[in-house]
Amino acid sequence: MFGVAGICIISHGSSRRGSMFNAIRSAKEAIDNDVLEQIKSYNNQRIETEATSASSN
User: Fold this and answer.
1) CA-to-CA distance for 57 and 30, rounded, in angstroms?
2) CA Rg, the chain, in Å?
């Protein structure tokens, strides 16, 4: 999801207890593994690479 500055886990309204537990566990793992910063870093590298490539043409 673009425009969300954080971890966002979406589940269905009729999800059962186990599904909700897994959604919460997934969010915790994403936070513990710094997934948001990894995505930001990857995007910044892509932007820099594309800018360098465009300026050399």
Assistant:
1) 38
2) 17
| Predicted structure pTM score | 0.70
Residue 41: what are its φ and ψ, rounded to 5°?
-60, -45
Asked if 7 and 27 count as a contact pair (C-beta separation under 8 A), the reply is yes
Handedness of CA 7, 12, 15, 19 (dihedral sign): negative
Q: What is the pLDDT of residue 54?
A: 87
Give the C-alpha separation, 30 to 2, whole Å. Answer: 17
**CA distances, 33 to each of 7, 18, 24, 52, 54 (Å):** 11, 22, 14, 30, 33
